[in-house]
Amino acid sequence: MSHSSGISISKALIDGFKTLNEGHGRFIKASIEEDQIVPKYTEQGTSDFEGDLDLVLNQLVDAEPCYILFRTEEKDDLSNGYKWLLLSYIPDKSKVRMKMLYSSTKAIFRQTLGGNVFSSEIHGTVKADFGKSGYEAYLKHEAAAPPLTEQEEEREKEIELGTAGYTVSTGMATVTASNGVAFPVEDAVTEAVKKMCDSGNNFVEIGIDIDNEKIVLRNETQATIEDVEKLISKELPSFIFFRWDHTHEDKEFKSIIYIFSCPDGSHGTKSAPVRQRMLYSTSKGAVENVLTQNNAEVTLKVEINSPDDFKVDEIKDKIHPPPVEEKKMFAKPKPKFARKK
Asked: Which of 182, 204, 308, 318 could form a disulfide with 267 if both were Cys (CB 3.0 to 4.6 A apart)?
């Protein structure tokens, strides 16, 4: 089964989980590699559940996120196996894209291995959050914690889905979206979008420098609406702001179209890697904020997988819907009366 992030659990990990679920071993360390969650280490452990918790600490490496599937001694009647702990170690020093990927993917364990088998999920950013003492602190917190407020429940859902924003400390401007990742924005991006809002170049293409974790300017130029299709990349995902200056019914308009293009292999495009597609998808709101910070609004949002999907006639009809033809009402025929004799 594949999660919405595009990541799936490998057969090797599923097989390893089944073996431990029969009581043969204590925990599995797993990592995301090549769009799959794969086993990296299996600990046989002892019969001492609490003592074995400290063995987890030996597998945690600074700045390297991982999952730990830890078998408890509690039996699970539904699966005829055991109850498990799902430990998510996502260090603060990890790259932003890895934080997002690991946070948003952990739901796949319940979907694939069974939601009822995990008695607890523990998320931590430092080694001290785990081990015997970390587990005891978690239990105390759970026992003492008051019911979550509506806002706290929403925040928990964001963390579960990986949509909670992460903050990056840099000297650049940073945009944050409630549904995305916060990346620093190059000054060139901010300046190009501002110029577009002030009647400068009307086509601005924006991308993400994944290695350096920042939003960057790819291209800015002057274009007609018919030119847009030719300017969209067939290989790289991109965010595009296009200002369409035009006249409609004797009125002048400056309509801003926000295009999110993510090639998927159709119509001669080259499919972007899963991680790249996911990173771009969750950054849409953050990039839009660059525009709204200039007191401008998007007139139309368009999501496409190929330049061919940008249909000029459809775009025009969405911005200026054609009038709906009124149905002609047919006159009701006069009733026929019998002729008097």
From this structure: 308
Encoded tokens for 315: 């775009």
DSSP 8-state code for residue 50: H
* 229 plus 108 within the same structural domain: no
Token pair for residue 42?
């299996």
Confidence of residue 277 (pLDDT cuts 50, 70, 90): confident
Residue 234 near residue 306, CB atoms below 8 Å: yes
Sign, CA torsion 98/101/106/111: negative
Q: Is 160 part of a structural domain of the chain?
A: no
Same domain, 288 and 220: yes
Residue 195 is part of a domain; what is its CATH number?
A: 3.40.20.10
| Nearest alpha-carbon partner for 275 in 167, 189, 181 | 181
Q: Both 308 and 205 in a single domain?
A: yes
- Between CA 308 and CA 66 the distance in angstroms is 40
Kindly state whether residues 114 and 225 are assigned to the same domain.
Answer: no
Beta-carbon count within 10 A of 232 CB: 21
Decide if 161 is inside a domain. no
Residues 137 and 18 in one domain: yes
Q: What is the pLDDT of residues 233-259, one digit of tens each?
A: 999 999 999 999 999 999 999 999 999
Residues 51, 127 share a domain = yes
Whether the model pTM is above 0.70:
no
Nearest residue to 103 (alpha-carbon basis) of 164, 176, 148, 30 = 164
Residues 158-217: pLDDT tens digits?
444 444 444 333 344 544 443 445 678 999 999 999 999 998 999 999 999 988 888 999
Tell me how many domains the chain contains: 2
Crossing angle between the packed helical segments 96-105 and 150-161, to the nearest 10 degrees: 100
pLDDT value of residue 171? 42
Residues 6+ apart with CB under 8 A from 106: 67, 86, 88, 121, 160
Cβ neighbours around 94 below 10 Å, total: 19
Side chain identity at 248, as an amino acid letter? H
Same domain, 33 and 130: yes
**239 and 303 belong to one structural domain:** yes
Q: Supply the range of the domain harboring residue 107.
A: 6-141
Q: Are 272 and 281 in contact (CB under 8 A)?
A: no
